Amino acid sequence: MTTHTFRTRTTRLWRRFFPFGQALEDSARESNDDEQAPGNLTFITSLGNVVAARVVVANTFADRFTGLLKRDRLDRDEGLLLSPGGSIHTLGMRFAIDVLFLDRYMRVLKVASAIPPWRAVLAPAGTEFTLELASGRSAAAAIGIGMRLLWSETGVGADQ
Fold first, then answer.
1. How many CB atoms lie within 10 A of CB 4?
2. Which domain range does residue 47 map to?
3. In this structure, is the dihedral angle defined by the CA atoms of residues 93, 117, 79 and 150, taken in order, positive or negative?
């Protein structure tokens, strides 16, 4: 089996079993015409609290590998959604982050707060997406385990 055939088959399987991930990929591609940066999404809790108004989707190996390493800081309304997600590390990073581990329905499986640089956090079973946020955002948005996050392509104010 060639590499192309393997990649095509695995992509088809991934899209079949994880349709939400495909919707994120499609929205990241289609948002190039928007005023926001490509791939920006807004995440809010089911209670209406804004988690992050400018979330970039990292759905390629290169984007997930680089992650936040090139950043000096993360603004309070910014985030990075790793799709597919899993365990994370902060090796080489210069700032602390909050991390939300989400299942395929965007339910919070685990909240890891204020992870300092040079640490690793294991993802719980069932993790499909990992949302990296500025340190303190999970507490500010009152995020708890089992809470469902909602996303949209249109920005809402981070001051809500």
1. 8
2. 18-152
3. positive
Instruction: Say if residue 14's pLDDT is above 60.
Output: no
Domain presence at residue 99: yes
The C-alpha atoms of residue 80 and residue 83 are separated, in whole angstroms, by 10
* pLDDT higher than threshold 50 for residue 6: no
Q: How many domains does the chain have?
A: 1
User: From its phi and psi, is residue 71 left (phi > 0), alpha (psi between -120 and 50) or beta?
Assistant: beta
Q: What are phi and psi of 84, to 5 degrees?
A: -75, 150
* DSSP structural state of residue 148: B
Q: Output the pLDDT for position 147.
A: 96
Strand spans (E) along 74-157 = 78-82, 88-89, 97-102, 108-115, 120-121, 129-134, 149-152
Residue 100: CATH number of its domain: 2.60.120.1140
Does the predicted model carry a pTM greater than 0.90?
Answer: no
Identify the DSSP state of 124: P
pLDDT digits (tens, 9 = 90+) for 135-151: 999 999 999 999 999 99
Q: Which amino acid is at 125?
A: A
